[in-house]
Structure formats: structure tokens, C-alpha cells
Specification:
Blueprint (H helix, E strand, L loop, with lengths): L31 H15 L3 H14 L4 H14 L2 H14 L5 H12 L3 H14 L4 H13 L3 H14 L5 H12 L3 H14 L4 H13 L3 H12 L3 H5 L2 H6 L3 H13 L7 H20 L3 H14 L4 H22 L1
Helix pairs in contact: 1-2, 2-3, 3-4, 3-5, 4-5, 5-6, 5-7, 6-7, 7-8, 8-9, 9-10, 9-11, 10-11, 11-12, 12-15, 15-17, 16-17, 17-18
């Protein structure tokens, strides 16, 4: 059903979906004894004792078959066992008994995702978000369903809503950054990563998103700085930027990333890539020598030593470049 213009709708860009909230219906009040028994069943489910939980719930069903809560819990148990057909039947029964119930629809979204019915999962999720636009669990399930369906722009809307409701959380902003990256909105992904890093400067996923965004935007100097910081936290992720730094003529920065990654425990550095980088740096040093640029030559040899501390040739060439400056400094001191 499509809502009339004056009815509230959780807006999604180009979704083509508009589901009206289900009419609210007063669920039957459960007695204190039944509520205590349901709590016991929930505890057993949490502990993984699904069989005993189902026995308890089936016993209650003999007394009261009109409880949406019971059908939802039995459907949840069936879903956890992988019996999606039985789970869906129980959950549909729960919705018939309580059309406004949220929990059975949340599980139906998960069932649809498990079965690869992405459009159905998204449709149910949007209906839930329309019905409960301030329910964090609903919004997060909807966002994840949209991401699974590769509907990243719509997922972004849900993550932003979560972020508005819980501004202290970084997770929704990180997930927004992922969505923007997948949508090739690199500036937006970078902005999301920066918002997270303003709160948590060393958040690994945000650094990865920022690194990938800068690489796509070809902002290599900034990429080098981020990659060096990331190398101390997630060396393997930082190494992903090294080929781009080398190919865009930033070998000294690439060497720094490798050096930090090695110190941080990334033992596997591709031998071919490392040897190629050393050759590139040696070539840069030679060119710098030919044009009399001692500073650039020293930077290149120093970069070689960062990734190959045992390289005697680089050490000798660097000493030859540095010694005159040292001697001059000593003379001035005297």
C-alpha cells in the first residue's frame, strides 16, 4: 500500500517503496506466571538450549494459542535451527495475531536475506522503518538489508538516522563511510571517516576507509600520512596502499609505510615488491646526484635503509652525503 501525501513516510532516495504502518492492535495481556515462564524460555534460548526452550513454549501454547509472543519465539527457534519454512509460518501467525509486532518482522528480514530474497527483505525492512522510525534495532537491520542488496544510497539514509539518534556512536558513521565508498562517493566517504577519526583518532576501519578514499581521489601525500599511521595499527591494511604510492612516484613514503609495517609485526612483505622499490629508490638517488640535489639523494638512500637496514651500499652512500655536513657543523662548533 502506498501512503497518501499527508501520511508520514520514512523517505528513501529512489527506493520506489512506500509501506504504510500496520494498524496497532492491543496485544493480549500475559499473566505473571506466563511472563515468568517466557523469561525462563528466553534464558534457555540465550544459553543455546533450544530443545528445552521449545518444550516450555509448546506447553504454554496448549494453554494459550493466541499469543504473538509465543509464535515469535518458536519461530525464532526454528530460524536458529535453519528451518526457515517453519519459522516463517510461526512468524506469519504472530503477525496475524498482532499486526503491529516488530520482532517477527525483524526475523522475517533475516529469513529473506538467508534465502537470497533481497528485494523482499528490503521491502519488509522499509515497512518496519516506516512503522518505527526511532527504533535503533529496526534501523540497523534495515541498513544491513540494504547493504546486502547493494542499495548503498538507501543504506546510508538508515545509518544517518541511527547516527542522529545516537551521536556518540561511531559505528553508524563507519558504516555510512563503507556505503559511500561502495557508491564511489569518495569525498563523502572521506568526510565520514574524518568524523569518526575526530572522535577516535586511531579507529582502524575509519583509517582504512580514509586510505581507500584518498587513493581513489589520487591525493597521495595525504594517503602516505594515513598509511603510516595505519601501518602501526593494521600493517596488512596499510600495505595495500604501497603499490599506489610507488606507481605515483612516492617511493620514499612507500618505504616508510613498509618500515612501520615491519616493525608492527607484518612479516610478509612481498620480496618482488620490496626489491622493486629498492631499485626505484636507488634510481631516484642517482638522478638526484646527477642534478646535484643532495637532499633528495639522501632522502632516497635513507628510505632504502628503512626497509633494508642491512643494505651496506645505501649506508655508505648516505654517510658520504652526510659527512660533509657533519664536518661543517663540527667546524662551526669549534
Amino acid at each position: 500500500a502506498v501512503l497518501a501525501a499527508e501520511e508520514p513516510l520514512f523517505a528513501l532516495p529512489d527506493s520506489g517503496i512506500a509501506i504504510a504502518p500496520q494498524p496497532r492492535q492491543q496485544a493480549p495481556t500475559l499473566s505473571a506466571d506466563v511472563q515468568a515462564t517466557i523469561a525462563d524460555a528466553k534464558r534457555r534460548i540465550a544459553e543455546g538450549d533450544l530443545d528445552e526452550a521449545e518444550v516450555i513454549l509448546r506447553g504454554l501454547m496448549l494453554e494459550d494459542n493466541g499469543s504473538a509472543v509465543l509464535h515469535t519465539m518458536i519461530g525464532s527457534i526454528a530460524f536458529q535451527r535453519g528451518d526457515t519454512s517453519s519459522a516463517a509460518a510461526e512468524l506469519q501467525q504472530a503477525i496475524q495475531l498482532d499486526p503491529s509486532a516488530i520482532e517477527p518482522r525483524l526475523i522475517l528480514v533475516r529469513i529473506a536475506l538467508r534465502m537470497g530474497k533481497l528485494s523482499e527483505a528490503c521491502s519488509i525492512a522499509v515497512g518496519l522503518a516506516t512503522q518505527a522510525p526511532d527504533n535503533l534495532r529496526v534501523l540497523m537491520v534495515a541498513a544491513k538489508a540494504m547493504m546486502k542488496a547493494k542499495r548503498f544510497n538507501e543504506a546510508t539514509v538508515f545509518w544517518r538516522r541511527v547516527a542522529c539518534l545516537r551521536p556518540e556512536l561511531t559505528l553508524p558513521v563507519i558504516e555510512e563511510g563503507r556505503c559511500q565508498l561502495k557508491s564511489r562517493n569518495y569525498e563523502a566517504a572521506l568526510a565520514a571517516a574524518d568524523r569518526v577519526l575526530a572522535q577516535e583518532p586511531h579507529e582502524p576501519t575509519a583509517l582504512v576507509i580514509k586510505s581507500e578514499s584518498l587513493q581513489r581521489l589520487k591525493r597521495m601525500s595525504e594517503l602516505a600520512d594515513v598509511s603510516i599511521k595505519l601501518a602501526a595499527i593494521d600493517p596488512a591494511a596499510a600495505m595495500a596502499a604501497v603499490p599506489a604510492l610507488i606507481s605515483t612516484f612516492h617511493p620514499e613514503e612507500a618505504a616508510k609505510v613498509i618500515a612501520v609495517a615491519q616493525r608492527s609485526g607484518e612479516g610478509h612483505i612481498e620480496t618482488v615488491m620490496k626489491a622493486g622499490l629498492v631499485r626505484t629508490l636507488e634510481s631516484r638517488a642517482k638522478v638526484a646526484d646527477e642534478r646535484g640535489d643532495k637532499r633528495a639523494s639522501a632522502a632516497a638512500w635513507k628510505a632504502v635503509l628503512l626497509i633494508e637496514p642491512e643494505n651496506q651500499r645505501a649506508a655508505a652512500r648516505l654517510r658520504r652525503l652526510v659527512n660533509p655536513f657533519v664536518a661543517k657543523a663540527r667546524a662551526h662548533a669549534e
